[in-house]
Structure formats: C-alpha cells, structure tokens
From TrEMBL:
The record marks 76 as: Lowers pKa of active site Tyr. Pfam families: Aldo_ket_red. One of its GO terms (molecular function) is oxidoreductase activity, acting on NAD(P)H as acceptor. This is NADP-dependent oxidoreductase domain-containing protein. Substrate binds at residue 108. The active site is at 51 (proton donor). Residues 23-190 form the NADP-dependent oxidoreductase domain. InterPro entries: AKR (IPR020471), AKR3C2/3 (IPR044494), Aldo/ket_reductase_CS (IPR018170), NAD(P)_OxRdtase_dom_sf (IPR036812), NADP_OxRdtase_dom (IPR023210).
Amino acid sequence: MPTRMIPLNDGRQIPWLGFGTGTALLYKDATEAVRNAIAHGIVHLDGAQLYENEDTLGAGIAASGVPRETLFVTTKIADLAEGMTVRESFLGSLKRLRLDYVDLLLIHSPKRTLEGRVQEVWKEFEKFQQEGLAKSIGVSNFRIKDFEELLKVATVIPAVNQIEYNPYLYKSSQPLLEYMKKYNILATSWGGITPLVHLKGGPVDPVLVSIRERLEKDTGKTVTEGQVLGLWLRYQGIPQITSSSKLERVKEYLATEELPDLTEEEFQRINKEGAKKHHRVYCEWMDE
Ligand SMILES: NC(=O)c1ccc[n+]([C@@H]2O[C@H](COP(=O)([O-])OP(=O)(O)OC[C@H]3O[C@@H](n4cnc5c(N)ncnc54)[C@H](OP(=O)(O)O)[C@@H]3O)[C@@H](O)[C@H]2O)c1
C-alpha cells in the first residue's frame, strides 16, 4: 500500500500516518505491537523518552527485519535529569532505539524540566541535525509564545509542531496554525480521534456518521467514524499520529490511506459542529 508523504520545510518528507508508542503502549513493552504494525504497512513510528519504551520500540524495529531507511522514526526529549546534557540524553535514546539516527527529534513540551531552557536545547538539536543524528528537528505542544522564544535563537526553523488537534480544537487552534503557516512549520496531530474516545455524544458525532455513510455508498467499503476523523486531518495535510493495542485497529487506520478525500462541504460541516465545544484531554495550558 503506498504511503502518503507530506513535505517538511527542510526538504524532507513525513509519512502521513504515524503509529505511536504512547497511549495504549505507554510504559509497556512495545516490541510485538511495533513489529506487527510494521508487518502490516506502518512506516512511521512515534516514540518518546517519556513513554519509557524506546528500548522495545527499537526491538520491534529490529525484529521487523525491514531496511532502516524505509522507516520514519521520531523520538522526543521532555526532561533532562540533573547534570545530564542534551547530547547525553539524546545519545541514550539512539542507543535504546538501536539506531544511528532518528528521522525526527522533537522537544516534547516547553513545560516540565525544559521550561525556560528551550533555546539552549534547540541549539543542541541544530547540531544533531548537522551531524546527521536527527534528519529533521521540531517541537511538540508549542504555543505562539513558545515559538517566539525559540525563534530568537534559531538558525533552523522547526519542521514540525506535534499538537493535540481534533474538531473540538479546530477553532481555538487557528491562530497557532496561521502563525505556523508563516514559517512553513507542519502541524502533526495527536488526539485526533478524541471525539470517539473521550467525548462520545458530542455535536460532531452525527456529521461523522453521515460522512461515513456517504463514503460507504461511494466506495462499497466498510468505513468507520475514526477513519472519517483521519480524513478530516488528511484534508488539512496534517499527519495523524495515533496508536492502538489492537491489530484490527491498526489495519483500520492503514485502510484510511485508500479512502477518498472529504469534500470541502463535509470538512466545513465538521468544523462548524466542532466549534460548538472546546475540549483538551491533556495540556490545558496550551490555551494560556
Ligand atoms: N506529543 C505529545 O505530547 C503526545 C501526547 C499524546 C500522544 N502522543 C502520540 O500520539 C500517539 C497517539 O496517542 P493519542 O492519545 O493521541 O491517540 P488517539 O489516536 O487519540 O487514540 C488512540 C486510542 O484510542 C483508542 N481508539 C481508537 N479508535 C477508537 C474508537 N473508535 N473507539 C474507542 N477507542 C478508540 C485506541 O484504543 P485501542 O487500543 O482499544 O485500539 C487507542 O488507545 C501516542 O501513542 C503518542 O505517540 C503525543
């Protein structure tokens, strides 16, 4: 199955669908889930030091047997232990992942122990990119004010901002997305299926059902509301970072790649209903 690729501002590309080792796999052995996901067509893997399973993400990649260069692997740094340098922290990740480089390295958050230190961390990230240890570099959970701070010292503009994003965050995210567009910084989304997972019964639900029915009629395939949310992200050129403990669900996410695009009218109907509610699962400080 061909993987849709989305361009980054550094000339590289990111596969649209990413499989994360947080959420369902948080703090767990990810070996089998990763191996199975790759066997079924996943090429983009989203890890983080914080998930405490980089070692088993690496084991799953090794067990998959696919050539390293066919995969796109992300990791993130959220914290620095007392006395540890950014370099030591990142080299630890590469070792646990059993990789010579990652495709994308992110500052996980401008909060936690990196609060007030993002400029210093970013300058180190720029060196890692020059050395080929991180092909692309970016951030996660950044607000406009966090970018303003980082861009004061940046030689390299972040390629990506990985943020919580779904129809209930569409309206409130527009100023940030507009700001990012000026710098050609790509948004990638986690929490994209929140309307189904955390907010069932919200105003978006009936629209998702009617679009699912339209797609089923047009394609003759079974379509899910989760896939409609994936298509909502894809319509905006935003990669979907998702996860699952179940292989069936991974296949469902992958099958989204083969579905047709939403129409502009369908996209706007979702946005209109999404604007009726505002809800974040995590990182409420993103609204500060
Ligand atoms: N940068 C950050 O700060 C950050 C934060 C959170 C997550 N992430 C990344 O994003 C990845 C995805 O995390 P997420 O929380 O955003 O995941 P998500 O895509 O919003 O949700 C995935 C979860 O939803 C469940 N699910 C899927 N379809 C469902 C349905 N139709 N009904 C009910 N439950 C359903 C799955 O459970 P099953 O296991 O039952 O399939 C899975 O655990 C993480 O693994 C991580 O890599 C990044």
